[in-house]
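Pilot study result, target chain (672 residues):
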Amino acid sequence: MPGMWSGLKKRTVLDIGTSAVRLCELSKTKAGFQITKYVQREYNSDPGLEEAVRAELRLKAVREVLKEAKIRKRKVILGVPGQSVFTRCRALPPVPEYKVSQIVRYEIQQQIPFGLDQIALDYQILGQTEQGGFDVMMAAIKVDVVEKHLEVLKPLKYAIAAVDVLPLASYNWLKHNGQFGEQGDCVALIDIGATTTDIVIERGHQFRFTRPLNIGGNDLTRALAEAFNMDFVSAEKIKRERCFAPTGDPQRDGKAGEVTGKVLQRLVGEITRSFSYFRSLPGGGQVNRLVLIGGGARLKNIVPYLSSQLGMAVSIAQPLVNSDIAPAAEAIRQCPEQTTAVLGMALRCLDTVTIDINLIPPRILEAARRKEQALYWALSICALVLIFASIVPAAANQNKLVKDRIEELKRGIRAYDPELVQRIRVGATVPQSGLKRQLDVRQKHLEKLEGQVRILDRARRQRRFWLDEMAFVNEARPTNGRMWFSSMESTRFPEKEDTQQAGGARGGQGIAALPGASGGQRTTPGFVGLQPLGGAAARGVAEAARVSGGNERDKEVDKTSIPLPNGFIVQGLAESDEVIYEYLENLKISSRQLPNGWFLSAEKVSFSEASVQRVGAEMIYDASKVGSGGATAGASLVANAPAYYTFTVEVKFRRTQDRPNPVEQQQEGGNA
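Predicted structure:
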């Protein structure tokens, strides 16, 4: 039972995992919840390390997280992994609700070979059965296991407020923001962690089943380390940067795909057996949809792989949907799939959660109860003393207190404005200080400066890094011919209203049209400064913020919005004109899936043969001259020496939720 002060104090929420430590803090807003703080530190999770070394690395990571978050000492909400917790769902007979606790203790004692004094237990009533009984979820954990997880807090001298279960915390958060089971079907949450994989199943909007699997990301890392004869840290790096789930093409997958496939087949087998066991339980059923979270969900091609292996719809959870993110928590966008557990634990500080389980050891609860009782007695005694102390002298000291207060106020006013005290008269209108008018002028000037800072800050938050676009342009290069890029420059292609806006700009402001391979159809913002822009340019800013997952403040578009580029100018060399034309065709029909599930493709590809010049081989070693007019076509050619062709291609990008049709892409993107 939470104490009377639990809702009045903030809690420090920590997710101390096998390979990382995470800290999160939420606050309530009018629109919902805002993530105000988020800090994450990873540490070496090599299973081969000694336990003492691993404990030292974990403690160091916790210290760094608390230091960076600037957290004062508060009580901590901690999570324990699902493999350490015994959980069961039972349908109890029709009994008075106050007897449910006794039945739960009896059921757990029958299932666990330990005395009740050696375990921490809790339960949650999920609903009522048709016969009038209760559907109950029971959870228990050995006290020694909890104490082992709490050891990391002892050197820091932090007290514990609650012990949550990590997979249940993830379920609570996804249930809260509408990312789990809103259709009433049978949905399974798969949390692929470093050492374990947790399954949570909901059927008919009600929690039904949870189960841990002893397989995780570290198993894949160990398999890669053994197959390629490398250490654990190097294998972990390769797994994150280059590893992917098998595609079914042995030539493309290679040896790494074979190693990955063996580990994932074990995972699929365990998931299938767990689903079969759930179907055999009372209230069970056929799982028809999967939601992925955890570090394993970041493995490339994992969604198509699991979908084909399990024969059902698979998606990666979006835990940051419908949540505002403060600047101090922007790091949460880097790996949102791994944040559901810490967000779920932070949620219980502000709101009621679906599964409210607290496995705090009984000795800590008893100590908190005694401390709370002592506080009640102390407050009661203080209240009585204050009552008696204030009743007797109150009447005698009333006039003196009023006079002292008046003199205190006059001293304060005199320090603020000596002339104002001389103008105060009893019964007259309260005079206004001249300093007040000066303050108003300063405040207006400050508001003007704040407006300018907001414009600059919006420009900073709306910047883009173009990594996906660069990868898309690079992957479209022909495989059978050689091609070199000398430069990539961002540019802006006009939208429908840009032409009218550019024509109405005065004094060189607005968007200027530039001649290029597209015949004057390309525009670029250049160094436009911060002059007002609207129309399609402003909507381009809003669309970029929406696609990139920005918060509501980033999506606001007003007259101070800055136009964003939407294309590239690519210059380079090719060994033949056939390679150039093959590259153009690849750009028109290619697409790239982004981490958020959208697809990046070329909306328009512009190319002019006038940009092609035949130059000598030495141009490869002086890329600054390519496309700059630094060499005349054929001027430096030597007989029987290899020659190359310069080219300039302009690409306008687009992002869509559905994968583009290659035939339609080629028809729309053709502008050579």
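One observation from the pilot: The radius of gyration is 33 Å. A full batch analysis is planned for the follow-on phase.
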